[in-house]
Amino acid sequence: MHAILIHVHADSNRHRGACPMPLWYRPRRNRPRLMVAKTKQCIDCEQVYPRKEPYFYFYAHVPGGRRYPSTRCRTCHGLYTSQRKAAAIEEKATRPRPDHCECCGKACVSNTVLCYDHDHTTDEFRGWLCAACNLGIGKLGDDVTGLQRAMDYLQRHYVTK
Fold first, then answer.
1. How confident is the model at residue 63, as a pLDDT?
2. Residues 151, 152, 157, 161: is their CA dihedral positive or negative?
3. Most buried of 14, 52, 77, 101 (most Cβ within 10 A)?
4. Which pTM was predicted?
5. What's the burial of 130, exposed, middle or buried (CB within 10 Å: 0-12/13-18/19+)?
6. What are the phi and psi torsion angles at 75 (to 5°)?
7. What's the pLDDT score for residue 148?
8. Which residues, in sequence order, are CB contacts of 9 under 8 Å at separation 6+?
9. Which fold has domain 95-156?
C-alpha cells in the first residue's frame, strides 16, 4: 500500500472533473489541497508502517518546509546504504580481499574483518588491514613520521631481557 495523494479542490463547486489550468498558473486560492495517507509501504521489505519519523527518514526537497518520507523504512535504508558503500569499496580496491592482514600478517578468522585502507589526501587504495592495524595507523597520524616517532619511542625504552 503506497502513499496516496488525494486531489481535493478548495472550492469544490467551482471545478468539476479535469482542471483547465496547470497548478502553477492558478491563483493560490484555487490550487488543490493535498491530503496524505496515514501509512506507507517500504519498497524493499514491503511492510506497511505508519507514516511517522521513527519508521522513515524525512527529506525536505521543496521550499516551504514540506517534508517527504524516503521510499525505504529505516532498517532497509541502513542495509541499502551499507551495501552501496561495500560495493563502492570493492570497486575502488585494486586487488582482491586476501585472507590475512597485509600489515601484521595475521590470518583472518571468522570474527575478524579486513578494513579497506586508503590515503586520506589522495583517496588512493593502500591495502587490506585488520581492525587493530587500521586503528593503530590511524591513531599515529596515518603517515610515516607518526610511525617513526612511535618506533623511536619504543627503541629508547626498549629493555633487552
1. 66
2. positive
3. 101
4. 0.49
5. buried
6. -65, -50
7. 93
8. 15, 19, 30, 32, 33
9. His-Me finger endonuclease fold (3.40.1800)
Alpha-carbon span 91 to 127, nearest angstrom = 13
Question: Residue 128: which residues within 8 A CB-CB, separation 6 or more?
Answer: 93, 97, 98, 101, 102, 114, 115, 116, 117
Report H helices in the chain.
74-92, 131-139, 144-156
HSE-CB of 108 using CA atoms within 13 angstroms: 18
Which grid coordinates belong to 82? 551499507
The residues, any chain, with a CB within 8 Å of residue 37's CB and separated by 6 or more, are 1, 2, 3, 4, 51
- What is the Cα–Cα distance from 114 to 24, expressed in whole angstroms? 54
Q: Is 17 left (phi over 0), alpha (psi -120 to 50) or beta?
A: left
Of 113, 103, 95, which Cα lies nearest the Cα of 137? Answer: 103
Q: Find the angle CA(33)-CA(35)-CA(41) to the nearest 5 degrees.
A: 145
Q: How far apart are CA 3 and CA 23, in angstroms?
A: 21
Burial of 64-80, coded b for 16+ CB within 10 Å and e otherwise, reads: eeeeebbbbbeebbeee
Please tell me the predicted confidence (pLDDT) of residue 5. 44
